Amino acid sequence: MKNYILFLVLSYSTFGFSQKTDSYRLTKEEIKQRELNEVSDFPIYKAFECSDKGGVYELLLCENQKNITKNDTLNTKIQAIYTMADHGGFLEKWRINDLLEPTDPKETTIWFWTKYCSTKDLDGDGYIDPVIVYGTKTEYGGIRRVKIITVYKNKKYAIRAVECDLDYCRSFKKDASWNSLPQKIKTHIDALVVKMRKEQDLILQDG
Question: Residue 77 to residues 106, 114, 118, 160, 167: CA-CA distances in angstroms?
Fold first, then answer.
């Protein structure tokens, strides 16, 4: 009987019935070996390999690095791409594009806030639910826009925030489809918002 139970446990693990997910950051050499630079229009800032029940994917966070100085790198455009190797090429699952907006005060850079990005299975269904966070800064160094985009079953659910000291110019909006997300994912993102408020001294509230 014990041997039969052990066989079931080994079979469960060996034949992929478990819902384990995994991700790790790729090195520059791994990015080059996999020819991932061909996928994006911009230089890859960071890349991650992600594996779940659906297969093995690469998450590419790309910034155009328009102006590079000694102290800083300024970007005018960004891309996030989720792709997988397919018959010698790449099969793109989804892509996020954004760029600077004409504002007053002027936006001068847009960048991925990788400290708050994640590649985890948030609802326990065996599939990774990527969370992509990025922001913009103004010419005075203050944060203007913050976006938190959750990808669930290859569909994007966004929170769009504009930081401003005055009520009339501040906003915090969730997509109309936000409530269709599983509760575990919504709880995770709500906690992330609280964390960002605390750590970055952000308001992240509607005017």
Answer: 15, 16, 21, 17, 28
111 pairs with which residues across the strands?
A: 135
E strand or H helix that includes residue 146 = strand 143-152
pLDDT digits (tens, 9 = 90+) for 44-59: 999 999 999 999 999 9
Tokens 């906003």 sit on residue: 171
Residue written as token pair 């919504």: 186
Two tokens, residue 141: 């160094």
Residue 176 pLDDT level (bands cut at 50, 70, 90): very high
pTM score, two decimals? 0.89
- How many Å apart are CA 65 and CA 73, to the nearest integer? 6
pLDDT tens digits for range 178-192: 999 999 999 999 999
Q: How far apart are CA 152 and CA 18, in angstroms?
A: 20
